[in-house]
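Let's see one such:

===
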Amino acid sequence: MSLTSVAGLGGIGFVLLAVAINVIYVRARLPLPGATKSLGTAADEFAAAGDALKRPSVLVPATWLGLTLFAAGLVAVLWNGGSGAGAWALVGLGGVLMQNATFACVEALRFGLAAAAAHHRGSVAGLWGLSNVLFGFNQLFLATALLGFTVAGAGAGLIPGWHAILGYLSAALLFVSSCASPYNVDGTNRIALAGLIGWLGWITWIVGYSVILLGL
C-alpha cells in the first residue's frame, strides 16, 4: 500500500476516532478538555470519573498516529524540495506535530486533575487553569496545519476552491479562539462557539483531503 493511501486512511481514521472519543465522553458524562465549567464542578466531575476516564484515552494514541501519517502523506505529495508553494506543507507538518505533542500534555493533565480531585483538591485549581489555557493554545497548531497544507494544496491545484476556503476560514476561527485562551483560565469561554466551528471545519477539511489522497 502506498504512503498516500495509508495517509488517506490515517486521516479518516483520525476523524472517526476523534468523534467516537468525544461521543464516549459525552455519553459517560466525563469531563471534557476545555469544558466551560466552574472549578468546583470540574473538581467534582474529575473526582467521580475514576477509572472511567481511562477507557476512552486508550484510543487517543491511535488518533495521533493517524494524524501524523496523514500529514506525512501530504508532505510527500505536495513538497518536492525548494521554497515554492509546496514548502508550505512543512508548515502544516509542523502544526500537526506540535498539536500532537501539546494534546499529549492536555490528555496527561486530565489524569493529574482526576488524581488531585480525589486526593488533594488544593492542587486542582492550578492544574485546571493549566489544562484550560493549554487546550486553548493548542488551537493555534490546528490553525497552522490548516494554513500550511491549504496554501500548499491550493498552489498545487490539488484541492478545489471550496476546500481551500474551508481551510482558511477554519484556520482563522481557531486562531482567534486560541488568542482568547488566557481569558479562559477559570473555565469560562465566551467565544467557545468559534473554536467549535473551527474544529468541525478542521475535521471536515481532513476528510476531504483524505479522499483526495486515496484517489491518487
Q: What stands out?
A: The mean pLDDT is 90.
